[in-house]
Amino acid sequence: DDVDGDAKTYLVATDTTFAPFEFTNDAGEFVGIDVDILAAIAADQGFTYELNSLGFDAAVAALESNQADAVIAGMSITPTRQEDYDFTDSYYQSSVCCAVKEGSDVKGLEDLAGQKVAGKTGTQSLDWAESIKDQYGFEITYFDTSDMMYQDVQTGNSMACFEDTPVMEYGVAQGNGLQIIAKEEDEFASPYGLAVMKGKNGELIEMFNAGLANIKESGEYDEILAKYLEA
Ligand code: GLN
């Protein structure tokens, strides 16, 4: 801790396009559930931070290489990740899904035999895809961002993509031209939390948890969710 009493500015890394958790709105502002929750908690707890939109895999890499103090990016709390990172309490429950172009002949995972599908590097939904690719006989192409993955399905290059369910449901509702054909809500379902390297920035975890409890209590947390999910 700083001897001169200057408060630390936490460097927080996030994804680029992962609506409704982080994205750039029509007004060109970087917004979303993660963005608003972090702002509300920081205001409640009185800490300062700088949010850097890097991409999911890049955000985790920045954390690992000490270039970020924390990641908030719709990041799944998993037992494997808990070996390397400390997570805050969860602020959202998620699952994974598979989506195709609207009206596609691919109606279920069994129709993906011999097809190319799109996955996002470093994610839970990719882990699900990897775990079933031999069973269904598809081949995975890797993308760094969700929007590039969707584009590959929209153009017909990939027949399907794998994504977190709340993110795909939001995208479908916004007219991304895709439709969900399968969901995995058991083994690959997970809660989202903010992550730090194990044993580091423990005070940030404590402040986040205390602030999260406060904004749940005050109703601000519900307002943030409603703003993005009930629009
Ligand atoms: N929830 C997923 C994970 O943590 C995806 C996160 C993301 O793409 N921003 O792996």
Quick structural overview:
It is built from 7 helices and 14 strands.
- Note the total helix count: 7
Give me the count of strands.
14
Could you state the CATH homologous superfamily of the largest domain?
Periplasmic binding protein-like II
Helix/strand class: alpha/beta
In the CATH hierarchy, what is the architecture of the largest domain at level 2? 3-Layer(aba) Sandwich
The biggest sheet, with number of strands, parallel, antiparallel or mixed sense and barrel status, is: 5 strands, mixed
Highest-level CATH class of the largest domain: Alpha Beta
Q: Give the H and E element order.
A: EEEHEHEEEEEHEHEHEEEHH
Mean pLDDT: 96
End-to-end distance: 42 Å
Q: Which cofactors or ions or other ligands sit in this model?
A: glutamine
Instruction: Please name the CATH topology of the largest domain.
Output: D-Maltodextrin-Binding Protein, domain 2
Helical residue percent band:
25-40%
Descriptive notes:
The chain folds into two domains: 9-93 and 192-229, 3-Layer(aba) Sandwich (D-Maltodextrin-Binding Protein, domain 2), CATH 3.40.190.10; 96-184, Periplasmic binding protein-like II (D-Maltodextrin-Binding Protein, domain 2, 3-Layer(aba) Sandwich). 35% of the residues lie in helices and 25% in strands. The strands form five sheets. Strands 10-9-11-8-12 form a five-stranded mixed sheet, sandwiched between helices. Strands 4-1-5 form a three-stranded parallel sheet. The chain has a two-stranded antiparallel sheet with strand order 2-3. The mean pLDDT is 96. α3 (124-136) links the parallel β9 (116-120) and β10 (139-143). The protein is built from seven helices and 14 strands. The N and C termini lie far apart (42 Å). It is globular, with a radius of gyration of 18 Å. The chain has helices spanning 33-45, 56-64, 124-136, 146-154, 165-173, 202-218, 220-229, and strands at residues 9-14, 23-24, 30-31, 48-53, 70-71, 85-87, 92-94, 96-101, 116-120, 139-143, 160-164, 178-184, 190-192, 195-197. α1 (33-45) packs across α6 (202-218). It is of the alpha/beta class and 231 residues long. 42% of the residues are buried. The structure holds glutamine. Residues 15, 18, 56, 73-76, 94, 120, 123-124, 164 line the site of glutamine.
